[in-house]
Amino acid sequence: MKILEPFLNWQAEIQAIRRDIHAHPELAYEENRTADVVAQSLEKWGIPIHRGLGGTGVVGIIKGKIAGTRAIGLRADMDALPMQEVNTFPHASKHEGKMHGCGHDGHTAMLLNAAHYLAEHNDFAGTVYVIFQPAEEGYAGAKRMMDDGLFTKFPMDAVFGMHNWPNSKVGSFAVTPGPMMASSNRFIITVKGKGAHAALPHLGADPIMAAVQIAQSLQTIITRNRKPVDAAVLSITQIHGGSADNVIANETVLRGTVRTFTLETLDLIEKRIKEIAENTAIALGCEADFEFDRTYPPTINHPKETAFAAKVMRTIVGDENVNDSVEPTMGAEDFAFMLQEVPGCYVFIGNGMGDHRLAGHGLGPCTLHNGSYDFNDDLLPLGATYWVKLAQEWMAQS
C-alpha cells in the first residue's frame, strides 16, 4: 500500500479523535459535540468552516494555492445508532442506548485526516469541500443539508462518499458503476374490521385473518409481478393486533420495508401493495388504510466518476485489491440524494474480519449495526490517502 507518510506520523492523534467520538455517540440531529470536535480540528489546521447546514452539519473549505475553478466534495457521516454497545474496552460508548455501530466515527476521522493534509499541501488548482453530515441513519441528513443550500452555497463538479465494509480485508476497496445500494422504503397497512367474541366470529369481521391473507399475498408481487432480473426485497417485519385470547380485534397493523435498485420497480411494488391490501381487506369484510414512505432512493454511482475512483484506488493498493464490479447491497444510504443532484461515486473500504478489536469487545461478530462492532483504526491512514489522492488527481485533470 502506498500510504502518504504524514498519516503515519499523525496516527496517534487521529486515532484519539476517532475513539473520543466513539465514546461520545450522538444520534441524528444531536451531533453537537461531534460537530464541535470537527469544527475545532478544522479551524486548528487553518481551514475556514461553515456550520449549520442540516442543523449540525459542518463544511470545510480548502482552497488550492493555484487559481482554478474545479471543485470536489468529500463527504463523511457523523451520527450514531440508538443501540446498546456491549464492548467494554476504554473507548466504548459512555451513553446508554447509543453507539457508533456503523463506523461513522471512523468516517469522520478519515476525512478529518485528509483535510489536515490538504490544508498543508494545497498545491492544487481548485477547491475541496469536506462535508461532515448529520443524520444518515434513517433521517436523511444529506437531503436536509441540500435543502439548506449545500450545493448552491458550495457548487461542486463531483461528490464522493465512502463506507467501511466488515469482512473485507484491510487494504481492499470495492465499487461498481450504477446501483451500489438499494432504495429504502417503509409501509404501514392498517386493517380495520369489526370486533366480536372469539366464540362468535360470524358476528364480526376479523382483521387478523385479513392481515394474514394480505401478508401471504404480498409475496406474489416479488414472485409474479416483478421482472425476475429486477432485484427487490419486500419484508413484513411487524404484525400487531388483538388484546385477548377470546376477543376478535377491531384492527390489525402490518409494517415492513421494500428495497429496490430502480425507481420503476419501486413504483410497481408500491402500486401492487396498495391494490392487494385494499382489495383483500374488502373481500373479507374489512377496510385497509395504506401508507408508503420513500425514505431513501437507490444509491446510483455515475460511470465516469466510478471509473475515476477505481483508478485512484489502484494507484494506492494495486489492481488485486480493487473490486470494481462488486455486488450491490440491499442496504441503503442517504448519500443517494447527493448523487441525484451531483455526479459522483460511493465506495466501500475493507474493515477487516474483526481481529482488530481490543480486549473487552463483545462476543458478537464485528459487523455493522452489531453491539460488538468497532471501526478498525488501521484504516485511518489508508482512507485519508484515498481522499487526498482522489482530490489531487481530480484537480489535476486537463
UniProtKB/TrEMBL annotation:
<dbReference type="GO" id="GO:0046872">
    <property type="term" value="F:metal ion binding"/>
</dbReference>
<keyword id="KW-0464">Manganese</keyword>
<dbReference type="InterPro" id="IPR036264">
    <property type="entry name" value="Bact_exopeptidase_dim_dom"/>
</dbReference>
<feature type="binding site">
    <location>
        <position position="369"/>
    </location>
    <ligand>
        <name>Mn(2+)</name>
    </ligand>
</feature>
<dbReference type="GO" id="GO:0050118">
    <property type="term" value="F:N-acetyldiaminopimelate deacetylase activity"/>
</dbReference>
<dbReference type="InterPro" id="IPR002933">
    <property type="entry name" value="Peptidase_M20"/>
</dbReference>
<feature type="binding site">
    <location>
        <position position="102"/>
    </location>
    <ligand>
        <name>Mn(2+)</name>
    </ligand>
</feature>
<dbReference type="InterPro" id="IPR011650">
    <property type="entry name" value="Peptidase_M20_dimer"/>
</dbReference>
<dbReference type="Pfam" id="PF07687">
    <property type="entry name" value="M20_dimer"/>
</dbReference>
<protein>
    <submittedName>
        <fullName>Hippurate hydrolase</fullName>
    </submittedName>
</protein>
<feature type="binding site">
    <location>
        <position position="104"/>
    </location>
    <ligand>
        <name>Mn(2+)</name>
    </ligand>
</feature>
<keyword id="KW-0378">Hydrolase</keyword>
<feature type="binding site">
    <location>
        <position position="137"/>
    </location>
    <ligand>
        <name>Mn(2+)</name>
    </ligand>
</feature>
<keyword id="KW-0479">Metal-binding</keyword>
<dbReference type="InterPro" id="IPR017439">
    <property type="entry name" value="Amidohydrolase"/>
</dbReference>
<dbReference type="GO" id="GO:0019877">
    <property type="term" value="P:diaminopimelate biosynthetic process"/>
</dbReference>
<dbReference type="Pfam" id="PF01546">
    <property type="entry name" value="Peptidase_M20"/>
</dbReference>
<feature type="binding site">
    <location>
        <position position="163"/>
    </location>
    <ligand>
        <name>Mn(2+)</name>
    </ligand>
</feature>
<feature type="domain" description="Peptidase M20 dimerisation">
    <location>
        <begin position="186"/>
        <end position="281"/>
    </location>
</feature>
